[in-house]
Amino acid sequence: MNNKYRTHWCGDLRDTNIGQEVRLSGWLWRARNLGKLLFLDIRDRTGITQCVVEVDQDVAKAAAEIRQQSSVTITGKVVARERVNDNMPTGQIEVQLATIVVQGASAPLPFQMGDDPKTSEAQRLKHRFLDLRRDVMQRNIELRCNVVASIRRRMVEQGFLEIQTPILTASSPEGARDYLVPSRRYPGQFYALPPAPQMFKQLLMVSGFERYFQIAPCFRDEDARADRSPGEFYQLDMEMSFVEQDDVFEAIEPVLEGIFREFSDWESTPAPFPRIPYAESMLKYGSDKPDLRNPLEITDVTEVFVGSGFGFFEKAIEGGAVVRAVPAPKAAGNSRKWFNDVEGQAKKLGAGGMAWIALTEEKLKGSAARFIDDERLAALKEKCGINTGDALCSFCAEPKKAAKYAGGIRNHLGQLLNLLEQGTFKFCWVVDYPFYERDEETGELDFSHNPFSMPQGGMDALDNQDPETILAYQYDIVCNGIELSSGAIRNHMPELMLKAFSKVGYTEDQVKEEFTGMFTAFQYGAPPHGGLAPGVDRMVMLLAHQEDIREVIAFPLNQQAQDLMMGAPSPVKDLQLKELHLGIHWPQDSSED
Fold first, then answer.
1. 10, 42 in Cβ contact below 8 A?
2. 413 with 296: CB under 8 angstroms?
3. What are the beta bridge partners of residue 211?
4. What is the mean pLDDT of the segment spanning 452-461?
5. Nearest Cα residue to 272 out of 159, 424, 428
6. Would the N or C end of the chain have less CB density within 10 A of its end CB?
7. Residue pair 127/210 in contact by the 8 Å Cβ criterion
């Protein structure tokens, strides 16, 4: 490389370059005047090179006036450093500065640059172009690029075809809230941005492509979370024909295992990944996204509290409640305040309270201690695997809520007691999801997961089983407590599709109208098929050891779904609205209600 701006990248110079005249371009990262010498750090995407010049030279006087983060081109001779810096790849050399040219001067910086900036997320996102210059952000985005390239290579090697599906499509009632795009040519009608390529990838299976994938952009009008960015995200979308559940697992496990081994020195679960039925996961971990780094397991101890005299628990159990207990190893000696703080965490989850016991050397103590006789204590020890020195935190509620409270405290205690296994990625499949569930508010039957999934037992199950007992060929892939993907073997039979939807109140005409393309296609020799779609953003977040998904996305929206840098969403001109045949219906001021 030898163009107008550089002969070398900043991060590439080594002691083998000593004596060479070089030309580098990048940003002035830092300047340090040490009396007789001026040191400049020049940075590009590959790294930093230190430049040095005596302060009485004209080039030093010019360099001293350049603001940090200005883009510059320098020339000079590579020499050996007097003080070697083993913490940086270029630490054995420096460049004796001969010339420096400002290519683009920087305005005063809105915040201090550094790899741990003491500034708000709002400031960072508003000036994302600066934030992205930081080394940690450069590494994250480069990692993302390399992960996507590796995914593509691994999928193609397995015979998958990368096929792009439409961005402008029809709104569907099957999932998340859509982003709508008004049509100029068809007044009053709208396109939708796809929440996922679900229907299109199934249609590709009907079309005979058999193995499809893409790095798919998905758009969902949802609130932000630490592991979910609002607006848009990317997933490794894949689908396969003539497969059962095991075939899908066998196809994706080598890809995920390979990616996590290629881009991290952490241990990773070898394939085949453990499979945990949904009911077992909710009982043992209080979640369908279990963090298997945490060794704690929840136990149902309802029977132990029957007839115990613990009034609240006994009355609730008679009404159908259950009692779930979480062990706290070696926590018996902790103060009452410690247990009160844990209970406070449970109340944040919605629990009314927490019953706890601590097995000290002297006696049993805790809010439930006086209701636990020797026989009940022996039963708790056997069921929960606790001994002297341990504690037990229990929650009584209807099964879903009890699982939520116990699962939340399991996670909390895992962190609080430093129980999580370090330096490892723990994968598992959660399988056998319920096909249907009752809406907590209305009591109406609804699909629990994906309405296009194949019910286990097929038509016989739909005809003869209680709908709430029917399981589906649905599955999630989970890593360290984060759901990477949902997937399923699909219901590809029109008559099964009509029957499944009829259970939740759809008529045949409604199914045909709302899912026209898919229902029609399934009448022309649809193959058995299934797939899933692991989230690219979430994978990179885990590999980069980041707590927030926005740290691995170049230009994310903030938690309020705003682009602070570009000013989106923003008003548009009346003429644009007129062209789209739209008007604005402003929300009523709450103060006038």
1. yes
2. yes
3. 240
4. 96
5. 428
6. C
7. no
Across the chain, what does the average pLDDT equal? 94
Q: Which of 398, 466, 411, 389 is nearest to 434 (CA)?
A: 466
Q: Which residue has the tokens 């170049």?
A: 554
pLDDT band at 223 (very low <50, low <70, confident <90, very high): confident
List of E strands, 244-351 = 267-268, 275-277, 299-300, 322-328
Q: Which long-range contacts (CB under 8 A, 24 or more apart) does 301-307 make?
A: 301/325, 301/379, 301/380, 301/383, 301/384, 301/394, 303/379, 304/376, 304/379, 304/380, 304/383, 305/371, 305/376, 305/394, 305/396
* Cα distance between residue 214 and residue 220, in whole Å: 18
Q: What 8-state DSSP symbol labels residue 371?
A: G
pLDDT, tens digit (0-9, with 9 covering 90-100), for 41-53:
999 999 999 999 9
The Cβ of residue 187 has, within 10 Å, a number of other Cβ atoms equal to 10
Q: Output b/e per residue, 246-260; b: 16+ Cβ within 10 A.
A: eebbebbbebbbbbb
Measured distance CA(163)–CA(522) in Å, rounded: 20
Is residue 468 a contact partner of residue 446, using CB atoms and an 8 Å limit? Answer: no
The whole-number pLDDT of residue 593 equals: 41
- Cα 170 to Cα 204, 215, 494: the distances in Å are 17, 20, 21
Cis-peptide, bond into residue 272, ω within 30° of zero = yes
Length of the chain, in residues? 593
Q: Does residue 590 register a pLDDT over 80?
A: no
Section 494-519 average pLDDT: 93
Per-residue pLDDT tens over the stretch 165-174: 999 998 876 6
In this predicted structure, the answer to whether residue 139 has a pLDDT above a threshold of 60 is: yes
